[in-house]
């Protein structure tokens, strides 16, 4: 029943969203929408400042029989237990906890006891009505024991985006689960009491394991925070650079994109990587890395989305009355559906440059982080060249309020193809949010994109002087 209430609410939220027509460009971002109160939204996908708790909850979700004799996922353990909550906070927690089992077992209800099961790591994102986001990092595993048994999911819920770091934490959880559940919770308590590290910094967690003694577990956060929940190698293992470029072209115009794969981990990693190609912009629409079987009708949503669906549901997806969509088969490395104009979206010259710069999986000389930076910078340079002149087209009044001059902005480019692209791109919600932030303060934050922008402007200056 709880799952049905979440499904009903989510479908209604999509209907309300689609009824606003063109106004969606200026509305708050949504993924899997929960009616929850919390902090104000941020432009970035996930909060990234140090000082946060590592996580809000650890929940264990297991397959249990309900009163009808059917099997369904249920939370069997929650750490920490929240007590003395006010009414609004209690309602918020209840809604969150009702949604989690649906996303921990998105495959449906046809589960049977197993004797062997390869553990999987995946994640999901829940968005509150105020735009704030909660991320669930999941490890689905077969508990130790004899005979056939159901898998269970250990899900760490928080508001901080760092897939690689939490994957390492889940490795530690799984290692302890094979010994005893009692060994997990002291480790998680120590983690919860530790401050979330700043980019590039490391925290050390002490944890006692019977027969092994006290272990010191080092958790390091990547220096480049915009890449800390990304694994581009997963995307390039499934798709050619040309296909990735066409996905980027579709995403940059905020179209509907569906990824198909059998493994939850592949879906989760690839959809996070695809969204990260948009940096310094943020995907601001429906975003579900792994769509539960009960929410497959989401593909009928008329507004932009980025969805991950298990390939076993392909026939059901194709039977849905979908509008224009890019359907990506990660298993076969091909597109099953296209709008048809994907190759014409980006300026041809820049497309060729990006293809020549994108690394391939045959390049074994790079570490994972170096590979991520190389891929990301290919797309960052695209935005530097296309929109790097935007500060010159913001007029400032005496009160320090900026006003973006859209027409002069896209006319400033000499290339006809580039102007054609920019005319479409400036109408997207991601660009609107980016410019709104730029208009709010003349003193821009010196982030990674701004650094690349400054480098590019300096290179242009040197070329003019030489």
From TrEMBL:
Entries under PROSITE patterns matching the protein: DENN
One Pfam family it belongs to: uDENN
All residue ranges annotated as the UDENN domain in the record: 56-445
Segments of this protein annotated with the region Disordered: 20-46
Record's keyword terms, sorted: Guanine-nucleotide releasing factor
MF terms in GO: guanyl-nucleotide exchange factor activity
Record-annotated membrane-spanning stretches: none
Annotated GO CC locations: cytosol; nucleoplasm
PANTHER family xref list: DENN DOMAIN-CONTAINING PROTEIN 2, DENN DOMAIN-CONTAINING PROTEIN 2D
Name of this chain's protein: DENN domain containing 2D
Originating organism: Varanus komodoensis
Organism taxonomic ancestry: Eukaryota, Metazoa, Chordata, Craniata, Vertebrata
